[in-house]
Specification:
2 copies of one chain form a homodimer.
Chain A: H1 2-9, H2 11-14, H3 19-26, H4 30-37, H5 47-60, H6 66-73, E1 78-83, H7 91-104, E2 108-113, H8 118-130, E3 135-138, H9 146-154, E4 158-161, E5 171-175, H10 177-190, E6 196-200, H11 206-221, E7 231-233, H12 239-252, E8 258-261, H13 264-277, E9 286-291, E10 304-307, H14 310-325, E11 334-337, E12 340-342
Parallel strand pairs in A: 1-2, 1-3, 3-4, 4-5, 5-11, 6-7, 6-8, 8-9, 9-10
Antiparallel strand pairs in A: 10-12
Helix pairs in contact in A: 3-4, 3-5, 4-5, 7-14, 10-11, 12-13
The first copy, chain A, binds a DNA duplex (16 and 16 nucleotides) through residues 18-20, 28-32, 34-35, 38, 41, 44-46, 49, 64-74.
Chain lengths: 351, 351
DNA sequence: CTGAAAGCGCTTACAG
DNA sequence: CTGAAAGCGCTTACAG
C-alpha cells in the first residue's frame, strides 16, 4: 500500500530504471551492464553479451544516473562558468565557444551570473564546487583577486577568460590589448589626428589597465604626449559609466579630435554624451571602440572598433581547461589572441 | 608508497574533507554532522553539539559533496535550461531572471545551447536528465514539439518560456503577442498609415504565428484588409532571414508606408535592405519592431518597438518551475505578460 | 538528543 | 569473459 502511494506521487523517479533493471532484463550482472554500456570497456565482453545488454537498455529507455557515476569515478564532467554579467554582449559568444568545445567532450556547463561583488562570487563558486565541478572558468577576475587564491589553494583546475590577473598564476585566454590599442591609435593618427584622448576602463581589471598602457605606448611612439586631461577612466565597463567618464573627458579636453575608448559599451556612453551636447561623430569627434560587440555595426554612426574573437576565446578556454582537468597540461599558460581593426563610420579626418 | 603517489597527483580530491572527517574532529557520529549542518534538522541537536560540529566544519573548510547528497535525497537542486541561441539578445535577460530566482532557492542552472536541430536538442536534454536535473526550462519549443511529448512522458517538471506549444499541455511564460501587435498597428494607424504590411516570423513558432494573427486581427479592426502581398514570413528569427524576407516584401508591396515586424532582429534585417536600396526610415517607410532587445535604442534610426519584459519572463518561469518541482502546483499554467509600446524614431506620419 | 545501519546507483579492482 | 563485493559521501528512518 505504501509502495503504491510512492508510485503515484513521484512517477518520474519511479520510471527511472537502474543498472539492476537492465541487468535483470539481459540476464547478466550489474557490473556487466556497466561494462557493456561504456564504450571503453565494452571490448572486454563477448559481442553477444554486449549486444544483449545494449538492447535491453534501449528497450527500457535506460538513462544512467550520472550523479551516481560521478560519485564513484570522482569526475562530474561538469564545468562551472562564472560571469560578471550575462547581459554584457561580449559574454554570450564566449559562452557559445566554451559550450561548443565542452559539448564535444560530453561536458556540461553550469553557468552562474555572479555580478561584481566578491562575496557573492565566493558564494557562487562554493556552490559550484559543492556540486563537484571538475574545473572552473572565471570571467570575473580582477588584477589582484583573492578568489583566485582560494581556487588555487583548493586545487581546482582553473582558467580565466577575457581578463587575466596580474601575477599570471593561472592559465588565461585574453586578447592582445597592446596591439588592439596600437591599431586604434595608428588609425586615428593616419587620418591626421594629433589630439587624441583615451576613455579608459577600471584599472583593477587587466583589460582596463592593459588598454590604457597600450594607448599611452602607441601615442608616445607617434611623438604624441597625451596630457593627463586627455585621459578619463570609467568606474566600470558599462554604458552608464561611459557616460559619466565621457562627460568629464569632454569638459576637461574640449579640443580633442579623436578618442580611443577601452570598450564598446563605454563608446556608446560617449555617443550618448555627444548626442546630448549636439556634437556630431565623426564630424566633431572621431571615436574608436574596443570589442566589436554585436550590433555596433548598426548604431549611428556605425562604430569603428577593435574586433576581439570572443567565440574563439571561449573555445580556447575550454580546451585549456579540459587539458588541465585531464592532467595533460599545467597551469600558467597564457593564450593571447590577435585582434583586428574594423573601420566603420565613426572615424574620419579631424575637423 | 602508493598512497603517497595518489596524494601527489590529485591534491584537490585529497584535501576534500567528508562528513567522517568533521565527525572525527567534533567527536560525534557522521549522522550528527549531517543534522548539525542542515538548518532544518539542527534544532534536534543540543546547542552545544551543533555548535561544536559547525566549528569543526568551519575549521576544516568542509564543503559537503552535493552529488552524494543528491544521490541520497533524489533532489539535485539543479535545473536544466535549453536555449536555441544564447547570442540572440533576448535570452541573456531571460537567463538573468531565471538565475536570480533559482539562486535564491539555492538552485543552480545548467545551461545548454541546443540550436534549432531536434536531434541535437534531444541529445542535450538526455544529458541534462542523466545529470538528474530536477526540472527543465525550454526556450526552444515549436508549436508541435515531439520533445515536449518525451519530457512529459518522462515525467520531468517542465516549463516553456518565450514560446508556447499549440496544445498548452505545459506551463509557459510568454508575452501577449496579440496585444503587442495591436499596440504596433494602432500606433501606425494613429500616425495616418493605411498601407501597413507585416514582416512575420516562422509559423511553426508560437511567436511567429501569434504575431501574424495579432497583426491581421488589429488590421481588420481598423477596416484595413492587408493583401497577401503585404505579408512576408521569414524562415527564422535572425537578421539574415529578415533581410531575405524584407527584400521580398519590398518587391511585392512597394507602396507600403509602414511595416510591423515580428521581431527586432528581423527589423534590423529590414533596415539593411532599406539602406541597400537607399530608402530612408521613417521617411519612406515606418518600422515597428518587437522585443525591445538591448541596443535597439542605439541603432539608426532608434527603433520603435514592442517591449517585452524578458527578465520578468525568466523570473516567472523559475517560480513556476520550482513550484512544479516541489509538487506545490500542477502544469498547464500559462503566464502571459503585458507588453508596452516604446516609441522611438523609426515611425512617423506617412510620406 | 545521538548513534549505528542501510542504501541512493553507479564503477572497478579482485577473483575465477 | 563475467560475477560478487566494496565503496564513492551523503541522509534518514530506526532504535534507544
Amino acid at each position: 500500500m505504501k509502495e503504491l502511494e510512492i508510485g503515484c506521487t513521484n512517477k518520474a523517479v519511479n520510471e527511472r530504471y537502474t543498472v539492476q533493471d537492465v541487468a535483470k532484463r539481459a540476464g547478466v550482472h550489474a557490473s556487466t551492464v556497466s561494462r557493456a554500456l561504456n564504450p571503453a570497456t565494452r571490448h572486454r565482453l563477448s559481442e553477444e553479451v554486449a549486444a544483449r545488454v545494449i538492447a535491453a537498455a534501449a528497450e527500457l529507455g535506460y538513462v544512467p544516473n550520472g550523479l551516481a557515476a560521478s560519485l564513484r569515478t570522482r569526475r562530474s564532467e561538469t564545468i562551472g562558468v562564472v560571469l560578471p554579467d550575462i547581459t554584457n554582449p561580449v559574454f554570450p559568444p564566449i559562452l557559445q565557444g566554451l559550450e561548443a568545445v565542452l559539448a564535444e567532450e560530453r561536458y556540461v556547463a553550469m553557468v552562474a551570473n555572479a555580478g561584481s561583488d566578491n562575496d557573492r562570487q565566493r558564494l557562487v563558486i562554493e556552490r559550484l564546487l559543492a556540486r563537484q565541478v571538475d574545473g572552473l572558468v572565471l570571467a570575473t577576475v580582477t588584477r589582484h583577486d583573492a578568489i583566485v587564491d582560494q581556487c588555487l589553494k583548493a586545487g581546482v583546475p582553473l582558467v580565466v577568460v577575457n581578463r587575466s590577473e596580474a601575477d599570471h598564476r593561472v592559465s588565461s585566454v585574453v586578447s592582445d590589448d597592446l596591439r588592439g590599442m596600437r591599431l586604434a591609435v595608428d588609425h586615428l593618427y593616419g587620418l591626421g589626428h594629433r589630439r587624441i584622448g583615451h576613455l579608459g576602463g577600471p584599472q583593477n581589471l587587466s583589460t582596463g589597465k592593459g588598454r590604457l598602457e597600450g594607448f599611452l605606448s602607441a601615442a608616445r611612439d607617434h611623438g604624441l604626449d597625451p596630457a593627463s586631461s586627455d585621459l578619463e577612466l570609467a568606474s566600470g565597463f558599462s554604458r552608464e559609466a561611459g557616460r559619466e567618464a565621457a562627460f568629464r573627458l569632454l569638459e576637461h579636453a574640449p579640443d580633442l579630435t579623436g578618442v580611443v575608448v577601452a570598450n564598446d559599451l563605454l563608446a556608446l556612453g560617449l555617443y550618448d554624451v555627444l548626442a546630448a551636447r549636439g556634437l556630431s561623430c565623426p564630424g566633431h569627434l572621431s571615436v574608436v571602440g574596443h570589442n566589436d560587440m554585436p550590433f555596433v555595426d548598426m548604431v549611428s554612426p556605425p562604430l569603428t572598433t577593435v574586433r576581439i574573437r570572443h567565440r574563439e576565446m571561449g573555445e580556447q578556454a575550454a580546451q585549456l581547461l579540459l587539458r588541465l582537468v585531464r592532467g595533460e597540461a599545467q597551469g600558467g599558460v597564457d593564450v593571447v589572441l590577435k585582434p583586428d581593426l574594423v573601420v566603420r563610420a565613426s572615424t574620419a579626418a579631424p575637423r
